[in-house]
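Below is a complete specimen:
___
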Amino acid sequence: MSTLYATLADTLRTRIEQGFYRPGDRLPSVRALSLEHDVSLSTVQQAYRQLEDLGLAAPRPKSGYFVPTGRQAPALPAVSRTAQRPLDISQWEQVVELIRSVPRDDVVQLGRGSPDLSSPTLRPLLRALGRISQRQDLRGLNYDSIYGTETLREQVARLMLDSGCRLAPSDLLITTGCHEALSVSLRALCQPGDVVALDSPSFHGVMQTLKGLGIKALELPTDPQHGISLPALEMALEQWPIKAIQLTPTCNNPLGYTMPDANKRALLQLAQRFDVAIIEDDVYGDLAYRYPRPRTIKSYDEDGRVLLCSSFSKTLAPGLRIGWLAPGRYLEQALHMKYIGTGATATQPQLALAEFIAGGHYEPHVRRLRAQYQRNRDLMIDWVTRYFPAGTRASAPQGGFMLWIELPEGFDTLRLNRYLLPKGVQIAVGSIFSASGKYRNCLRMNYALKATDTIEQAVRLVGETIKELESQ
């Protein structure tokens, strides 16, 4: 009997966690489940009691069982207020503080942009790497084409069909991560002193690439649900000599929004009207919680002005350092920048990835992680609601594994991080996501790892330290 009710409870728990039943939904009746699973009424009742103990089911008199709605989610962050002019980028010192740290068992790194690497669905990739390293033909140790191995480009082109893109292998360059794809794109398009329009807050890696290239950033107001303000972008294009628009419109980092399809099409039309390029970062696109995954701006592109950048760093493993770029009409410029930068990308991980994808392992892995990240998002928001001060605002990510948190004006997350590090917790401070050091009262936290008491206690420590600093 215990095995039957535990199995049934586990089935219902999985359905709830994967979103088949949402908060507030009525769960199947005891009688319906008894018939569906061919078990007794008492077995179903025991299963529901177990779900009650887990906080996943709540009885209502004469109405049955429902998925609890939980605490009220915090308000979303405010629409960003940005400078009205292009700016030189600062904040390098704060970025170095984040990226120079290496994974340590005694530090809970809530600030880094790494996915969960513990999933058993990565084992076929490890086996593929092992097989390729043992081959006697030494192909994995040699240079391959500057474009990247053809087998991997074929697999990437196939994967991109899910985003609405119809690309040939010859349309793609394999890069050393998405970061290089973004850097190659900027160098292919811009010269020192040029202006690039950005959503704000924006990925700190792009900010620092602009800084290194002597390019100015024009940050634009960005809504935490719908993305960059199109009226503000239109005004900026009329006023400034913008060379390119760079943004992450799907499962944005750090805000987590996905731009509606209508906005993506409208943004492309603006770029066509003013004849500027779009650099689209889609590195989190495959981690969207809804299916089918959202379309890219590139999928609407008919004149080759969108340079699509992505990688396997967020879906599989950042240490592979394998990304790709679909540069459209800018292929020759991008190829030149790739050549004078890193040259050909490492061959061995490309071969292993191609084998992993061709073997049918990529989709099940990403499907598993999407479900995990969505569950973790809800837990993280619940913990922030529980442990952070009243009035804290938090994003509602539609994919990926990053949560953006906004504290009252005047709060200093740089100071917060200095207090947290000796206690074994690290966050990403908000100021590194802005050209001018805005968002000092904000922070970003990673919720990729499997939820444990250790992570909950780390989030609790962040909240308690915020309260302590506010009271000083």
